[in-house]
Design brief:
With 545 residues, this protein is α/β, with parallel strands linked by helices. The protein is 45% helix and 16% strand. The protein contains 17 helices and 15 strands. The strands form three sheets. Strands 5, 6, 7, 8, 9, 10, 11, 12 and 15 form a nine-stranded mixed β-sheet that branches. A four-stranded antiparallel β-sheet has the order 1-2-3-4. Strand 13 and strand 14 form a beta hairpin. Helix 1 packs antiparallel against helix 2, helix 1 runs antiparallel to helix 7 and helix 3 packs antiparallel against helix 7. The longest helix has 30 residues. The chain is elongated and about 90 Å long. 52% of the residues are buried. The C terminus is likely disordered.
């Protein structure tokens, strides 16, 4: 008895075109986040812009493609794919210049990234939108419903493959330019395959020409001068763009284009950024610094704070750093050496606190995505968790980027209010004498305390900490007014909105010693980068970033 043979069908050329368009459109959407983030941040507004532009461009392409579907052919789809590949070559070669041009447009903060996303990704996504209605028109399926369902399924499967491959394979493995080159080459290859077995001269020649353009764009890239210094190392991690840049004797770690740590190559123990000295303020607030045993840093960066604590005190230092590439870079370029007293944990800070059974004397919160604290590390639930993991006289220090008062202070005041809700007593210290956006250190004690500036100054004189915190104590601030800002909870934490007022403002990172000012763009959380010049406070140097 013979078994019935199952029907088999090979994918048609339109099927292949639909699948590849799905792979490419979703792959480009994921890649857009990496290209846009260094200039505009990775806030909800940035991702909202990306999703809006991609959906709008695809919808317009679907509509126009449907109107012209009666003229559909494999050759027309070939030209559409080649046009998309050509524009991808432009994105690979000129994305930095296009981003800078778009960022100069005078738009409100939340909409600032829209023009950049539109210019870079609107045209190629629009062209890809034509493919599905063309393929439905050319489908061999019976009936409109079956043909459209077939096309939707193939396009969606392609999108799943594009999103997964870009997220889990391509971005951790390749640079942005090479990923763009790969997508462009896939489009060219597909376009060429659509014309086979007959070799049509014009599409074939165009395929070869665009392939060459892609190779040149990915291989050469734009010739630009990096004002920040010499790029020692650059990579795309699973979470962000990571760069190590030397400017004279100062080596700086950049994450998504924002400064995160710096080290003096001639004097590695010097605090290049003034705000890292403030990490020692908790040692003035604990009952006895000699009894401090366990310290936790959430966020590693260049590991300036953890290395300093290990060097100055007889303590065990744990570091919860989410991105393993950051820790690897710190070991390779910032002289980090793990030891019995310093351990790096590759884990999210909140998850680390949830899972550990260890209690700490000091917790330093210094985790950032570009210039924004991850939202789940700003909320009341996290602060209460940190309070539970601290000893009775334990101290939390949170590094906050905001203005101390007035415009740009909303996030600082909301974070202060949230921390104060979880802890018995809360204090704050500014790191610059100017009213600019800066690093503000919010310090909270588990025990009820009432430290005055004079009390802390006296403890600084009495305690031998290996670091004089006189100027840091002098930066003691009065309690801020928090009546007009929300408590940041899991249900309502509008961090993006609160930080929006800092965009375009001067962000001053005070630099100790004789380090040179490094000119650069101002970019806080999200929004366009604006050139500024910070004014130095007495005895310090302000870095415009």
């Amino acid at each position: 008895m013979s078994m019935p043979r199952l029907p088999t069908s090979r994918p048609t050329k339109p099927d292949v075109a639909v699948f590849v368009s799905g792979v490419t459109s979703m792959g480009l959407e994921i890649l857009a986040g990496r290209i846009i983030a260094p200039q505009f941040g990775s806030s909800i507004y940035t991702w909202g812009s990306i999703i809006t532009v991609f959906l709008a461009a695809l919808s317009l392409g679907y509509w126009q493609g449907g109107r012209q579907a009666s003229t559909a052919s494999n050759r027309r789809m070939s030209w559409l794919l080649l046009g998309t590949a050509a524009y991808v070559a432009v994105v690979v070669y000129a994305n930095d210049q296009l981003l800078l041009s778009a960022s100069a447009l005078p738009l409100p903060t939340r909409y600032a990234s829209l023009p950049a996303v539109f210019i870079l990704f609107g045209p190629p996504t629009y062209l890809l939108g034509f493919i599905s209605p063309y393929a439905a028109e050319l489908s061999q399926k019976d009936g409109t419903g079956e043909a459209s369902g077939h096309v939707y399924a193939l396009g969606t499967i392609g999108s799943i493959v594009g999103a997964g491959a870009t997220t889990y394979l391509l971005i951790p493995t390749l640079g942005i330019d090479m990923i763009g080159f790969l997508f462009g080459f896939i489009l060219v290859g597909t376009a060429f395959a659509l014309t086979l077995p007959t070799l049509v001269p014009r599409p074939a020649a165009a395929s070869v020409a665009i392939a060459i353009v892609l190779v040149v764009a990915a291989g050469l890239g734009p010739v630009t001068f990096d004002h920040r210094g010499d790029v020692v190392y650059q990579t795309q991690t699973a979470y962000q763009e990571l760069e190590v840049i030397d400017n004279g004797d100062v080596r700086t770690l950049y994450l998504d284009g924002a400064r995160h740590s710096a080290m003096d190559l001639e004097d590695p123990d010097r605090h290049v950024f003034e705000y890292t000295r403030y990490f020692h303020l908790p040692m003035l607030m604990v009952d006895d610094p000699d009894e401090v045993e366990n310290v936790l840093f959430i966020g590693g960066g260049g590991y300036t704070g953890p290395k300093d604590f290990e060097r100055k005190y007889d303590v065990n230092v744990d570091v919860a750093e989410l991105d393993p590439a950051v820790t690897d870079a710190a070991k390779e370029y910032f002289r980090l050496e793990e030891s019995e007293n310093l351990t790096a944990h590759t884990e999210d800070g909140r998850i680390f606190l949830q899972e550990t059974d260890k209690t700490y004397d000091v917790i330093v919160l210094d985790a950032y995505q570009k210039d924004q604290v991850p939202i789940h590390l700003t909320q009341l639930g996290f602060m209460e968790l940190a309070e539970e993991r601290l000893d009775e006289d334990g101290v939390l220090l949170a590094n906050v980027i905001a203005a101390p008062s007035g415009s740009g202070s909303a996030f600082y005041r909301a974070q202060y209010k949230t921390i104060d809700e979880a802890f018995a007593s809360t204090y704050s210290f500014r790191t610059s004498s100017w009213e600019s956006v800066q690093n503000i250190e919010v310090v909270a004690t588990n025990a009820e305390t009432n430290f005055t500036e004079a009390d802390l100054a006296a403890r600084n004189d009495q305690r031998e900490l290996g670091i004089d915190l006189r100027s840091e104590v002098d930066s003691y601030m009065d309690e801020p007014n928090t009546d007009d800002v929300p408590l940041l909870t899991e249900d309502h934490a509008p961090v993006d909105n609160l930080q929006a007022s800092t965009i375009g403002q001067e962000y001053v990172i005070e630099q100790t010693g004789d380090g040179e000012t490094q000119p650069g763009p101002a970019s806080i959380a999200v929004g366009p980068a604006l050139p500024v010049h910070a004014r130095p406070a007495p005895g310090l140097e302000a870095i415009p970033v």
